[in-house]
Amino acid sequence: MIKPVFRKIDCYSLPVDDLDKGIAFYASLGHALLWRDGNHSAGLSLPDSDDELVLHTDGRPFETCILVDNVDDAIKSITEQGGTLMFGPIQIRIGKYALLHDPWGNPLPILDFSNGKLATDEAGNVIGNQTTSDTQ
Fold this sequence. Notes:
Layout: E1 6-15, H1 19-28, E2 33-37, E3 41-45, E4 52-56, E5 63-68, H2 71-80, E6 84-92, E7 95-101, E8 107-111, E9 118-120, E10 126-129
Parallel strand pairs: 1-4, 5-8
Antiparallel strand pairs: 1-5, 2-3, 3-4, 6-7, 7-8, 9-10
């Protein structure tokens, strides 16, 4: 049996003009702040899942990111089956990111945790990345 390329939905990523106002709006809807990376991005909880609402101010469009084990391997698998690499791969805080399209033009934004999940202080501010031993 072929090992699936996609592991899970990782985040629902939303652009906002003002990160503080975005955090306040989603907090008023009951979504707790999990982490914050300066004025660039923040992750909020989705209570029935380990997925996150991610707010960002860097001009990226709305997208739903899919977690893969390894972005480079996923690009190879997807393009060998007729998908198209549209952008990337690039390094992001947690690992790598790339945007592909399936043969029908549907976007497949993928990412991996090759740098480790985000480490935060008591207030939820990002202070680095977790090591492999921290996540086990």
